[in-house]
Every structure is written in structure tokens, then in C-alpha cells.
Amino acid sequence: MSVPPDQAFLNREPIAGVNFEHDDFVLVLSGMHAGNKGSLVSLLYLAPEPIFVLELESGFDIEIKQSQIAHATS
Q1: 52 with 13: CB under 8 angstroms?
Q2: What is the DSSP letter of 73?
Q3: Which of 8, 9, 14, 63 is least surrounded, with the fewest CB atoms within 10 Å of its CB?
Q4: Which domain does 37 fall in, by range?
Q5: 46-70 per-residue burial string, b: 16 or more CB within 10 A, e: under 16
Q6: Rounded to an integer, what distance in angstroms lies between the CA atom of residue 23 and that of residue 10?
Q7: Beta bridge partners of 39
Q8: pLDDT tens per residue across all 74 residues of the chain
Q9: Cβ atoms 20, 69 nearer than 8 A
Q10: What pTM value is reported for the model?
């Protein structure tokens, strides 16, 4: 039995087309939160592109597209 994508994400298992894992620390590259950093909490959608819930360092949760983020350094 295969694991649903959202659970696979929480388990830090590879998912085709998803470049990030649960709790990865990322930088927002574009959009109204550009320049902010945070940790990926969950995977909401796979198509048309992966969309995540990102917990910003400020404590706010936002929905963010994979194309809007990159791995960040501390």
C-alpha cells in the first residue's frame, strides 16, 4: 500500500516533483512575503505544482508555491 503524498512528506520520503522535505528551512523568493524565512510544515497539493504550508519565523503560516522558495542558510 502506498503512503499518501502528505504523509510521505511528513515522513521525509522522496516524492516525485517535490524538491523539499518536511521541516526544511527555506527563503521566500517572490510574492508578498519575499525575503522572509521559515520551515515547511506540510504539503497541500502536488499539481499543477507543489504547494506547501510554510511557518514563517514570525510565527505566521502561509501557503507557498514550490517555485517561490529556495533552501535557505541560517
Answers
A1: no
A2: -
A3: 14
A4: 5-71
A5: beeebbbebbeeeeeebebebebbe
A6: 8
A7: 25, 55
A8: 578 889 999 999 999 999 999 999 999 999 999 999 999 999 999 999 999 999 999 999 999 999 999 999 86
A9: yes
A10: 0.92
Identify any residues that bridge with 2 across adjacent strands, giving them in sequence order: none
Q: What are the φ and ψ backbone dihedral angles of 8, each rounded to 5 degrees?
A: -60, -40
DSSP state of 72: -
Cα 71 to Cα 1, 3, 4, 26: the distances in Å are 31, 25, 24, 4
Q: How many domains does the chain have?
A: 1
Domain CATH for 24 = 2.30.30.140
Cα diameter, the chain = 40
Measured over the CA atoms of residue 9, residue 13, residue 17 and residue 19, the dihedral's sign is positive
Distance CA 58, CA 21 (A): 21
